[in-house]
Structure formats: structure tokens, C-alpha cells
Amino acid sequence: MRRYGLIGFPLGHSFSKGFFAEKFAREGIADACYDTFPLAQIGELANLLNQHPDLQGFNVTIPYKEAVIPYLTRLDATAAAVGAVNCVHLTGHERVGYNTDVLGFGQSLRGVQGGRWAQAGQHALILGTGGAAKAVEYVLRQLGHTVQYVSRTPADASVLAYTDLRDLSHIDLIVNTTPLGMSPHTERCPDIPYEQLTARHLVFDLIYNPAQTLLLQRAAASGAATQNGLEMLHLQAEASWAIWNGQQRG
Ligand code: NAP
Q: By CB neighbour count within 10 A (0-12 exposed, 13-18 middle, 19+ buried), where does 56 fall?
């Protein structure tokens, strides 16, 4: 049996195990399983690897996409450039980190309204400054967008506070990479001036559970285009599977 899985904390919201169970059943893959491994601390990873010597690869989610890096022997070029890892391939004594959120977010963004918000030179806000935010920033900069982070605790003058968000008329794209609104706390949403959103804007929420977060509901009510994180989840999971099976795509 080839064992794969997901580390993070908490993991109750995650669809990854269900995604792989359906994939294995649909494609007749009988020799693989995918489990969730909630780790209260990243330091528990060494123990997990000792307990499961048959583990061939795992995904990494909130809040360990950056914290996992010291536990790896090598990063591929994209993960090194991003500075965050959501996919690890275990081979022999090697623990190699990849970032398939880049492919997942990029392809999903290109699919919205014929790629309207993937055309170069647009202005983007990224809500949150964690591991997923780094993959989003990497994709947006590659597209030639300008990118500004919004944080609860801005580290320097280049990062905005939520209270700085008064005028969204020059913004094209807002990407939520915070867990605000994720199940079970679906009553929450980021503190942005919703009344300023229009059809010019795309609001992309990386959350997929629930499908329509309060952020997306309020954005849609203001006339903005919306996209949730479900397609991104599926794309990054398929890209992880390809890596674990030696079929990595560029
Ligand atoms: P993370 O590393 O913990 O980062 C989350 C960031 O959000 C934090 O750095 C923080 O930035 C901000 N934040 C945290 N709690 C907050 C709160 N209560 N209010 C406002 N901001 C808060 O997590 P991650 O791995 O980047 O994941 C973030 C989210 O994206 C999760 O919901 C995850 O499920 C989702 N995600 C989805 C996909 C997909 O395939 N659809 C892929 C990756 C991630 P500041 O401290 O700067 O405010």
C-alpha cells in the first residue's frame, strides 16, 4: 500500500482526503491511501515519519507551509522562489519540497472570465501574509501585476493595514489567503470596504469550505466577480499526485 496524507492544524475543514478517496475509487487505484495527520506542533513531524515509514508523500496546509521547510532536505526551484511548501515527496533519505499552490492558483485564475484578471499589469491586494499568500504573490508578480499585502500587523510600510483600505477604485483583484470565514466559523469575513466593490473587481477566496464564504457573498452582492478555492484545491492535488508518481508537469 502506498500511503500519502495531509499535515496541518486543524484539519476538520479539509476536502483533500475526500478528493483522493474519490480519485482512487474513480481511477481504480487500489494500492494507495490518503490520510489526514493533524499535528498540533510541526515538531511532531519527525515522530509521524517514524510511525509511518511507508509514507511516500504528503501535502502541507495551514499553518505549516513555511514551518515545514527546515524539516526538508531539498526544495525544488519554484518552492525555493516562493518560500513555502505544500507538497513533500519522500524518496529514500530525501524529503523534497514543492509548491503546487502556484500551479493551482495560476490555472484557476486564468480560467475566470477568459483570463480577464490574468492579463498583465493589474493591481492586486493579498489579504494575509502566510504560506498560501506567498504562492499567490509569486503567481501575480509573474503575471506582471502590482501586489500589496494587507495584514493585521503590517511588518513595514509596504504592507497595508485593514484600516488603510478606504479606496478600492484602482484595485482589480483581491485575493483572500486568510482563514477568515472558513468552516466552522462561517460568520466571519475580512474587514474591507465592501460598498466599494464593483464589476471591475475579482474577489478570489482561497477557502472552498463553505463554497460561498461571507466574503464572496458580500462581494457578489456588490457586483464583483467571485471565485472560490475549490478548483485550485483540485488542481494542486492533481499536481501533487503527479509529483509523487514521477510525472511532474512544468
Ligand atoms: P497561514 O500560513 O496560517 O496564513 C494565514 C494568514 O492569514 C496569516 O499569516 C495571517 O496574516 C492571516 N490570518 C490568520 N488568522 C487571521 C484572522 N483571524 N484574521 C485575519 N487574518 C488572519 O495559512 P495558509 O496555509 O496560508 O492558508 C490560509 C488559507 O488559505 C486557509 O484557509 C487555507 O485552507 C487556504 N488555502 C486554500 C488552498 C486551496 O487549494 N484552495 C490552498 C492553500 C491555502 P496576518 O497575520 O499578516 O494578518
A: middle
Looking at the CA of residue 60, tell me the nearest atom of ligand 1: 25
The pTM (predicted TM-score) of the whole model is: 0.96
Q: What is the dihedral of CA 103, 108, 110, 112, to 10 degrees?
A: -170
In tens, the pLDDT along 108-161 reads: 999 999 999 999 999 999 999 999 999 999 999 999 999 999 999 999 999 999
Q: How far is the C-alpha of 47 from the C-alpha of 24, rounded, in Å?
A: 27
Establish whether residue 183 lines the binding site of ligand 1, counting it when its CB lies within 6 angstroms of any ligand atom. no
Ligand 1 contacts CB of residue 192 (under 6 A): no
Ligand 1 pocket check: which of 206, 208, 213, 230 to mutate, most ligand atoms within 8 Å of Cβ?
A: 206
Mean pLDDT of 213-236: 98
Residue 65 is among the residues annotated as catalytic for this protein: yes
Summarize pLDDT for 73-115 with one digit per residue, the tens: 999 999 999 999 999 999 989 999 999 999 999 999 999 999 9
* Count, residues in the chain: 250
Among candidate residues 17, 23, 65, 134, the one labeled active-site is 65
Percent of the chain with pLDDT over 70: 99
Which residue's CA is the nearest one to ligand 1's atom 44?
Answer: 132
Asked whether 182 lines ligand 1 (CB < 6 A), one says: yes
For residues 113 and 239, what is the distance between their CA atoms, to the nearest angstrom? 23
Strands 87-91 and 55-60: antiparallel
3-state class (DSSP) for residue 72: coil
